[in-house]
Design brief:
The chain is α+β, with helices and mostly antiparallel strands. It has three domains: 218 residues, Phosphoenolpyruvate Carboxykinase, domain 1 (3-Layer(aba) Sandwich), CATH 3.40.449.10; 281 residues, Phosphoenolpyruvate Carboxykinase, domain 3 (Alpha-Beta Complex), CATH 3.90.228; 86 residues, Phosphoenolpyruvate Carboxykinase, domain 2, CATH 2.170.8. It has 18 helices and 33 strands. Strands 1, 4, 5, 6, 7, 8, 9, 10 and 11 form a nine-stranded mixed sheet that branches. Helix 14 packs across helix 15. The radius of gyration is 24 Å and the shape is globular. The structure holds sulfopyruvate (SPV) and manganese (II) ion (MN). Sulfopyruvate binds next to helix 8 and helix 9. The site of sulfopyruvate has 9 residues, from helix 8 and helix 9.
């Protein structure tokens, strides 16, 4: 069934593709935005090899991507002031009477819809509209959510082809029963560098009621790739109504003794080691960013709604990240964004250890040379700290075979990690689900990074590292977590901290010590090692770590290192509890009371320990239990 106006604007080939889908709501939606945005023409992508090749070629033809020396590699630049998620202009559109609380950016629905539709009227004049179909999660799965993306950016369309499973066949299969998400994006008018010109009218508006997200006058992936962080907010809202969780988590298989693979999810704010944890050598990756979790048969199972990685490239090097490194240096499809291109057509990024830092090149600011400054007099680095690579995970040698299992994988451990220079120990297990949700998840804190447009280096509370993506009130979100673990076999909860520093400012751990923490957690989920009980949680026994450092890293691990790293720092821990309590008392109006009770208990345990042992307590003073 085809609406009249669609006939006039869509060519026969694309029309035939749409006619195969029996879903009037979908057709109406597409027709509406063709009419409103007024593109010159429309291309419908079914995910066939031919259609995807067309998208790829378009991105280059239109100058949104530039080919690099290695076959299949391209670079894309976002505007100088469009390098990260725009928190300020990302808003939920809420009808009267709906309130998400003060920590979540929202505005009146009618007003927002009016504004964004005005911005989008005629916005695609002179451009081509791409219509693409995807499926969040494995096909034919209870977890799956079909989604349609409309965009005038071939770069956005191309990125999504790498990052998401094609869903055209799912739309055909589901017909009118599809409960799908909708995304409309326009980069708006472009400048001569093909970057969005009208940044002052950058808007990302999320309408929970119709499960639609609008994004205009921006190109940066976190603002535009609808299926990523925009879909995540819709999914989180839907999950809350249906009793499951949408989380900002990787999913990985940790390989234990005797060929055993144990699946973990992990939540870390951006730039805190999330991708590098999920990519550790010897382990396998299911996903690096987002997880859908559901209760099934007394256990928790999870899928990755994505199939690719939009990862931070800064610091990726041949020694610490051999798998990503290989993928980034082999023929195959990779989109680099906001890196530097050298004269020989190679991408360069800060922390790349294989070549000498170039003296000049071309980057997100234009022609670049060492020492170049922007209009405000700030030094321009060769690559932006939030520069990224985009690839399909099938390029990776460590891809886990369960990626497309429609049942998901059973999760036995959940990890919360933040950037914390002086408080939390490198790894610790919660006493139980509730203790973990509250003292590790809800209390997750991190020193801010370059992934958003805010200032860098401030300590911020970020519940489950999901604060930026919450589409329900924070208290309800915590409450959902507390309930979610009420199954026969809830996963163990852990916290990690890769960023502890010595008095002289140097890191206490090497980058890949995290490999040891993971193996320890794997053993704990099977109760194959004991743990030491401290006021804040269960930490490794020195002897177990010594053995693991030897077998995993081939390294000696001294008692001094253990003592320093696993010292219970009472004043810092008490200060943290105070910050967390303040956050939940002042910023959140619907905090579940149990949160304060559990924090108070932790505080009391710390105070009691201090009375016996003082402010800084060696882990050797505590015993296994
Ligand atoms: C993050 O910042 O958490 C990311 C990249 O994963 S973005 O798509 O910008 O959200
Ligand atoms: Mn993320």
């Amino acid at each position: 069934m085809m609406e009249g106006q669609l006939k006039a604007l869509v060519d026969a080939d694309s029309r035939q593709k749409l006619e195969k889908i029996d879903n009037p709501e979908l057709i109406r939606f597409i027709a509406h935005y063709i009419e409103l945005c007024s593109p010159d023409d429309v291309f419908v992508c079914t995910g066939s090899d031919e259609d995807v090749q067309y998208i790829r070629d378009e991105a280059i033809r239109r100058g949104e991507e530039i080919e690099l020396a290695i076959k299949g590699h391209t670079v894309h630049f976002d505007g100088y002031h469009d390098q990260a998620r725009d928190r300020k202009n990302t808003r939920f559109l809420l009808p009267p009477g709906v309130d998400l609380g003060s920590g979540i950016n929202a505005m009146d629905r009618e007003e927002g819809l009016k504004e964004i539709h005005e911005i989008m009227r005629g916005i695609m004049r002179g451009s081509r509209m791409y219509v693409l179909f995807f499926c969040l999660g494995p096909l034919k799965s209870q977890f799956a959510i079909p989604a349609v993306q409309i965009t005038d950016s071939a770069y956005v369309a191309h990125s999504e082809c790498l990052l998401y499973r094609y869903g055209y066949d799912e739309f055909i299969r589901l017909g009118r029963s599809a409960r799908f998400f909708k995304f409309v994006h326009s980069a708006g008018p472009l400048d001569e560098r093909k970057t969005s010109r009208d940044i002052s009218r950058r808007r990302i508006y999320i309408d929970l009621e119709s499960e639609t997200v609008y994004s205009a006058n921006t190109q940066y992936g976190g603002n535009t790739i609808g299926l990523k962080k925009l879909a995540m907010r819709l999914a989180l809202n839907r999950a809350s109504k249906e009793g499951w969780l949408t989380e900002h988590m990787f999913i990985m298989g940790v390989h234990g003794p005797r060929g055993r693979v144990t699946y973990f999810t992990g939540a870390f704010p951006s730039l805190c080691g999330k991708t590098s944890t999920s990519m550790l050598s010897g382990e396998t990756i299911v996903g690096d960013d987002i997880a859908y979790l559901k209760q099934k048969g007394g256990k928790i199972r999870a899928v990755n709604p994505e199939k690719g990685i939009f990862g931070i490239i800064q610091g990726v090097n041949s020694r610490d990240d051999p798998i990503i490194w290989n993928a980034l240096h082999s023929p195959g499809e990779v989109i680099f964004s906001n890196v530097l291109i050298t004269d020989d057509g190679m991408p360069y990024w800060s922390g790349n250890d294989s070549v000498d830092p170039p003296e000049r090149g071309y980057n997100y600011a234009g022609e670049w040379f060492a020492g170049a400054k922007d209009e405000e007099g700030n030094l321009i680095p060769p690559s932006h700290p939030n520069a990224r690579f985009t690839l399909d995970m099938h390029m990776l040698e460590n891809l886990d075979p369960e990626l497309d299992n429609p049942e998901g994988v059973e999760i036995r451990g959940i990890i919360y990690g933040g950037r914390d220079s002086n408080t939390k120990v490198p790894v610790e297990e919660a006493f139980d689900w509730v203790h973990g949700v509250i003292t590790m998840g809800a209390a997750l804190e991190s020193e801010t990074t370059a992934a958003t447009l805010d200032s860098i280096g401030e300590r911020k509370i970020n519940p489950m590292s999901n604060l930026d993506f919450l589409s329900i009130p924070i208290g309800r979100y915590i409450e959902n977590h507390l309930k979610f673990g009420m199954v026969e076999n809830p996963p163990c909860i852990f916290s990690v901290n890769y960023f502890l520093r010595d008095a002289d400012g140097s890191f206490m751990n090497e980058r890949n010590d995290k490999a040891v923490w993971l193996k320890w957690m794997e053993l704990r989920t099977h109760r194959e090692v004991d743990a030491v009980k401290t006021p804040t949680g269960l930490i490794p026994d020195y002897r177990d770590l010594k053995a693991l450092f030897k077998s995993v890293r081939g390294k000696e691990y001294s008692e001094e290192a253990y003592t320093k790293q696993f010292m219970v720092r009472v004043p810092e821990n008490l200060a943290k509890i105070e910050r967390v309590e303040k956050f939940y008392r002042t910023n959140v109006s619907d905090t579940p009371e149990i949160l304060f009770v559990v924090l108070e208990e932790q505080k009391q345990r710390l105070i009691d320990a201090r009375e016996v042992f003082g402010d800084y307590i060696s882990p050797f003073y505590f015993s296994t239990g």
